[in-house]
Amino acid sequence: MPFAGLVFLLVFVGAPLIELYLLIEVGSEIGAIPTIGLSLFTAALGGWLVRMQGLGVLFRAQSQLGQREVPALELVEGAVLLLVGFALLLPGFITDAIGFLLLIPPLRRGLILRWLRSRGSLQPAPEGPAERRADHIIEGDFRRED
Predict the structure, then answer these.
(1) What is the mean pLDDT of residues 116-145?
(2) 88: enclosing H helix or E strand
(3) N or C: which end of the chain has fewer CB within 10 A?
(4) Contact indicator for 70, 62 with CB cutoff of 8 Å
């Protein structure tokens, strides 16, 4: 799998090198202390925003569970928010930019839906309220005879 090795190399070696280069360039322009302060500020702000949005996703998931629906999209969204929180805690401007972009709920949800459709994991939602969906259930008994 040479492609997987190349992706691994780019993500785990190339991305930190680019982040380090950008931190050095920004530090040479505005100074070391302001660059460190900016990195700490984005980590704190990002952590707070992820917490707020994570609570919103949790409340939506609980609401869906209360309506006897599976909160599948909310679970994926929660996992993405966990990754976003990790990206915002890492020092670097590229990871911060990606993290802050994924904090925009319509963009995040659209990317998740697009990813799920590309995998074939997204099924169309049933039409109408739960009462109408019950029309498709056929109850019966069976007996196994050996």
Answers:
(1) 68
(2) helix 72-89
(3) C
(4) no
